[in-house]
Amino acid sequence: EPEVTQTPSHQVTQMGQEVILRCVPISNHLYFYWYRQILGQKVEFLVSFYNNEISEKSEIFDDQFSVERPDGSNFTLKIRSTKLEDSAMYFCATNKRGGQGDTQYFGPGTRLTVL
Amino acid sequence: AQTVTQSQPEMSVQEAETVTLSCTYDTSENNYYLFWYKQPPSRQMILVIRQEAYKQQNATENRFSVNFQKAAKSFSLKISDSQLGDTAMYFCAFMKRESGANNLFFGTGTRLTVIP
User: Fold this and answer.
1) Which residues of chain A have pLDDT under 50?
2) CA-closest candidate to residue A48, choices A60, A38, A64
3) Pick among B23, B102, B106, B110 to test the A interface (most A CBs inside 10 A)
4) Residues in A touching B33 (Cβ below 8 Å)
């Protein structure tokens, strides 16, 4: 069964450094999402992406964040200058038909630790 | 704005017994979807079950079923014949039904422990 993959599984970085989290969506999926889960808290929406542009973003997704699909397969989330409070699990999710009732399938997540 | 509330932070159930997890939501939308996701200790998010708001019939998936009360904005998950592998965090989630990319709104989760 096709699945969403994410790399790395765990990233440790120093405050102020840039990180890039990678996601490989299921091949025929067109809508991509990033979510964040701070330890012990609920899953929060960051950004959605369709047709090579951002569809919607939350207030968490400030100028330090960016997303792109550089090569038609990987979907990346970049944090330019990490802060301690960026430490969290980051989940990529994808689906075929967006809001038309299509289930979002999640990747296994990347645990980001900012020191 | 949509909000999802899970009022039970933790629950436990004996193996083979039945447990019900509660979820309420608030929305002005008429067309939407509701989901239950399971997050085991590995922290992977796994879809358990989904419900279309326009369907009156409650969704079922093997041992998992929901009680969807649209007027009350309630969406509870019943797990029958609980198994040790059901031990996990369970998140209720809401998604608007409209074209384009639509994000999920999650509740705060219920930690379920199945006791042998």
Assistant:
1) none
2) A60
3) B102
4) 101
